[in-house]
Structure formats: structure tokens, C-alpha cells
Backbone:
């Protein structure tokens, strides 16, 4: 299953797995045509409203500013415009960014599943999720054996306080963190969600990293191993894009290495300061990862759409590199400052 699978307008959500698109059916928009549309990041990494599968398919893809070219002023009220402004300003459409960004805003959500991953995605994430949660599960349950094979069961084990042995260890953890037992359970549930977000972004990064490699090889073959190899301008454009993509891939790799280290926690010694530190680090990384991975996946999807067999002439390759691929890449590199 693709990490960015689409949701068809009108369907109820089992969850939201996409990082590059957002169904407006999940929000309380007054205009029914708008509710049937989808927000999408375009090749320039700007947000557009996609009416392709909506009640007015002929509109196509437009920006929010272009709405008045297709709707009467009375058809799209101030409330809808404010909601759209908030949503179109989001750097990514993954469920974790949505949950964090929309929490302080007064936007009425019709489908809360927009803030959760689908059951299928959670199943897909189990190998990554089990690796991250293993130290906590081992600490809580010691030598007990569990035939856990899905992410939902892992999350339930983290917040299950019924077994006496688990409760005793939770009470020790609560003392170490200077919080009540109910507050500790709340914190552990929060950790479960944080770990899930790390697993989700890591899965997308695995896919994105592979696509970057394929894209660079294709571009190199089209520009450096063709009649363009003696064209200084073409070589310069390829080198610039190759350098930026290489930096993005390397930086993302370093960030996940860092997240892997901080999520391997010694739970016996875990205290209040540790909780705040790990939480702060994961949340701060989420924002950077969401922006970069959203952008890379948009670029990769467009490349696969234009060149489904990775073909194309050298000139078509150069045009894609210089225009579609290059635009917005500098914003992605700025979103990924070097890790000390």
C-alpha cells in the first residue's frame, strides 16, 4: 500500500494516511461543492483545491484566490474562506500535522478520523513500531511472552494497567516522574502516539529515499549520459538539483538516526525531565520531517506521472529538472537545517 493513498470524496474515513492531500469532506464547510473537493500540494509545493473528483469536475485545480472566478461571492461565505485559509497554509497534510496545527483553531471537524492513521497503515507500521516500543514493553511486562502482531495491540499493552506486575512498575515510574498514576497513563498514551508518528514518517522516508535514488539516476542518465553532457548550463542545473536532493536525503537519514537513539529509553531511570526532552525532540522533528517528506513525495509522484516508465528524451529530462523538480527544493533544504 502506498504511504500516500487517496481518499475518494464522499467516503467515510477509516483514517488519513496521505501526506500530500486532504479531503475537505472531513470539515464543516457550508458549500457542498467545496466539501466534495480535495486540498492538494502541487509541484510548486503550493496548496491548491482539486475539484477533479468533486461535484464540479470541470473546475480542475485552482488556488483559493481563484474561487471567485468559479463561484458567486455569496456561495462561499467568510467562515468557509477562513477555514480554507487555515487549511491551505498547512505545510503538510499528514494526520499528525493536522492534529497539532488545528488544535488551537476554531475549525469544526466532521470526521475525527482525519487525525488518525487507517487500520491498514497501522498494520503496515508494525515492524517499525514494535522496534521502538520494545524497551517499554519489556520493562512493563518483563519475561511475559505476547503474540503481538499488530500496532493496535502494542498501543493497548502500553496503556493496560490491570496486571499487578504492570501496575507496580507503573507506580515506580510515576514516582520517578513525580506524577500521579492516571497522569502517567496519560503520558504513556501520548508516547504511544509519538512513537506511531516516528514510525509513520520513517516508513515514508524509506519510500522517499528510494525514489530520490531512482530520480537522480534517471536525471543523470538523461543529462550527463546524453548529448547534453557538453552543455554547461544543463550540467549546472543537474548538479544543483543532485546536490539539493542529496542533502535532503542525508539530512533526513541523520534525523531518523537521532530519533532512533532518543526513543531507545532506559525506562527504569526515566524521569520527568526525560519525558519532556523526548517529547519536545520528537515534536520538533515532526514539523521538519513533515515539510520535507511532503515535498519529496509530491516531486516523486509528479515524476512518476510524467515519466511512468522512467523514459523521456534528454530535453524532456532537462525541462523536468529545471522547472518541476527544482522549484521549491530550496524551501525543503531550509526546512532541514544541519543537525549538530
Residues:
Amino acid at each position: 500500500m502506498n504511504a500516500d493513498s487517496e481518499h475518494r470524496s464522499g467516503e467515510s474515513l477509516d483514517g488519513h494516511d496521505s501526506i500530500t492531500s486532504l479531503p475537505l469532506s472531513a470539515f464543516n464547510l457550508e458549500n457542498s461543492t467545496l466539501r466534495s473537493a480535495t486540498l492538494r500540494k502541487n509541484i510548486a509545493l503550493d496548496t491548491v483545491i482539486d475539484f477533479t473528483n468533486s461535484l464540479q469536475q470541470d473546475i480542475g485545480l485552482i488556488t483559493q484566490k481563484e474561487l471567485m472566478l468559479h463561484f458567486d461571492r455569496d456561495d462561499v461565505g467568510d467562515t468557509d474562506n477562513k477555514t480554507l485559509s487555515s487549511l491551505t497554509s498547512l505545510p503538510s497534510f499528514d494526520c499528525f500535522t493536522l492534529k497539532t496545527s488545528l488544535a488551537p483553531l476554531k475549525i469544526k471537524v466532521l470526521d475525527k478520523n482525519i487525525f488518525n492513521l487507517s487500520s491498514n497503515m497501522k498494520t503496515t507500521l508494525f515492524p517499525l513500531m514494535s522496534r521502538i516500543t520494545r524497551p517499554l514493553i519489556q520493562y512493563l511486562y518483563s519475561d511475559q511472552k505476547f503474540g503481538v502482531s499488530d500496532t493496535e495491540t502494542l498501543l493497548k499493552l502500553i496503556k493496560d494497567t490491570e496486571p499487578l506486575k504492570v501496575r507496580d512498575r507503573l507506580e515506580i515510574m510515576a514516582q520517578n516522574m513525580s506524577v500521579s498514576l492516571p497522569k502517567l497513563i496519560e503520558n504513556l498514551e501520548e508516547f504511544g502516539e509519538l512513537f506511531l508518528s516516528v514510525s509513520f514518517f520513517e516508513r515514508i522516508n524509506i519510500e522517499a529515499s528510494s525514489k530520490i535514488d531512482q530520480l537522480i539516476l534517471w536525471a543523470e542518465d538523461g543529462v550527463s549520459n546524453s548529448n547534453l553532457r557538453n552543455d554547461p548550463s544543463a550540467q549546472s542545473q543537474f548538479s544543483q538539483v543532485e546536490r539539493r536532493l542529496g542533502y535532503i536525503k542525508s539530512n533526513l537519514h541523520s534525523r531518523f538516526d537521532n530519533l532512533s537513539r532518543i526513543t531507545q529509553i532506559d525506562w527504569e531511570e526515566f524521569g520527568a525531565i526525560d519525558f519532556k526532552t523526548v517529547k519536545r525532540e520528537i515534536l520538533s522533528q515532526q514539523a521538519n520531517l513533515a515539510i520535507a517528506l511532503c515535498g519529496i513525495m509530491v516531486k516523486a509522484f509528479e515524476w512518476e506521472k510524467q515519466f511512468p516508465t522512467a523514459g523521456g528524451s534528454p530535453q524532456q529530462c532537462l525541462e523536468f529538472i529545471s522547472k518541476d523538480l527544482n522549484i521549491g527544493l530550496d524551501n525543503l533544504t531550509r526546512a532541514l537545517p544541519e543537525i549538530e
In short: The first strand starts at residue 21 and ends at 23. The chain has three domains: 21-119, 121-177, 198-334. The chain has twelve helices and four strands.
